[in-house]
């Protein structure tokens, strides 16, 4: 009789079996191609960014693999000689204003589209898609002409208004499915307990819609920071954003040094990455969704 059978007859538990060895799956051809393609893409992007970063510190670069020397004076010249400080302040002002206006107007509009059925609702949804999917150049000239006709051309107000055209429909379309996920019985229960429309919206719906609002706000901020065509046609030297100032430096017929434009490009990239990192650090949509379902 074996030891295991003896232990079973005496009522003792049988010894645990050693865990089976897990077999490593062999990589398939599709996975190898996917990882190689992703790796090549990442390497190309890092190479381009690295070349711009090195160029921003280069004294002269005669076309070899490495510059002749390094200096940080290009960043100081970019800050003082190209108006980058004013453009940076305008970028933050326009971005914050567009995000706030889009959320204040887009969330109620998304709620109405999700809760109300009316003739032509699908047409309205289709029209909201047009400013998002169409290239901004197709309507930038007409918007610029309208801004100058009403006397707003070259002002920060015009920069904010034209950037609302593609971003406000984006917020509305994002908020519609989030509102549809909320059961109408929640709103009915809140009204039974005496909540008016203002309390219902601020104390019941806003906490439930917070993940969608955060996601929409981040997308609007990123899109506003990178908006060029709409801002270019309505801005002036006092209201231009950083991306427009960068384009102006590159297209200067006087011949701006390439290291100076590279320093401006690095600053623009840092601002965009910093804004996105701060947004995702404090208003991560995935964390909000997990907190909502706890």
TrEMBL record:
Its main location: membrane. Residues 88-279 form the ABC transmembrane type-1 domain. It is found in: Cell inner membrane; Cell membrane. PROSITE patterns: ABC_TM1. It comes from the Bacteria. It comes from Pseudonocardia aurantiaca. It holds the Pfam family BPD_transp_1. The chain crosses the membrane at residues 32-58, 92-114, 126-148, 160-179, 200-222, 262-284. Keywords: Cell inner membrane, Cell membrane, Membrane, Transmembrane, Transmembrane helix, Transport. Residues 1-25 are annotated as: Disordered. Gene3D superfamilies: MetI-like. This is ABC transporter permease. The keyword Transport applies. The keyword Cell membrane applies. InterPro entries: MetI-like (IPR000515), MetI-like_sf (IPR035906). The lineage of its organism: Bacteria, Bacillati, Actinomycetota, Actinomycetes, Pseudonocardiales. Belongs to the binding-protein-dependent transport system permease family. It is a multi-pass membrane protein.
């Amino acid at each position: 009789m074996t030891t295991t059978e003896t232990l079973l007859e005496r009522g003792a538990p049988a010894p645990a079996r050693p865990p089976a060895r897990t077999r490593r799956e062999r990589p398939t051809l599709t996975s190898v191609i996917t990882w190689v393609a992703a790796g090549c893409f990442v390497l190309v992007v890092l190479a381009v960014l690295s070349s711009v970063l090195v160029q921003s510190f280069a004294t002269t670069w005669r076309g070899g693999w490495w510059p002749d020397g390094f200096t940080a004076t290009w960043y100081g010249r970019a800050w003082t000689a190209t108006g980058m400080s004013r453009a940076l302040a305008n970028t933050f002002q326009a971005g914050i204003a567009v995000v706030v206006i889009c959320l204040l107007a887009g969330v109620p509009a998304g709620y109405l589209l999700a809760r109300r059925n009316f003739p032509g609702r699908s047409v309205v949804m289709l029209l909201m898609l047009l400013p998002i999917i169409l290239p901004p150049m197709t309507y930038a000239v007409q918007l610029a002409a309208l801004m100058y006709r009403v006397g707003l051309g070259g002002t920060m107000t015009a920069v904010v208004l034209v950037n609302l055209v593609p971003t406000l429909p984006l917020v509305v379309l994002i908020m519609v499915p989030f509102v549809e996920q909320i059961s109408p019985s929640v709103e009915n229960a809140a009204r039974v307990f005496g909540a008016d429309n203002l309390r219902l919206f601020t104390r019941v719906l806003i906490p439930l819609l917070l993940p969608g609002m955060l996601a929409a706000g981040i997308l609007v901020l990123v899109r506003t920071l990178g908006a060029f065509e709409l801002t270019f046609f309505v801005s002036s030297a006092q209201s231009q954003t950083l991306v427009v100032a960068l384009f102006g430096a590159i297209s200067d017929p006087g011949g701006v040094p390439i290291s100076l434009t590279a320093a401006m490009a690095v600053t623009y990239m840092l601002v965009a990455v910093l804004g996105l990192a701060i947004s995702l650090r404090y208003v991560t949509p995935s964390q909000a969704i997990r907190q909502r379902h706890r």
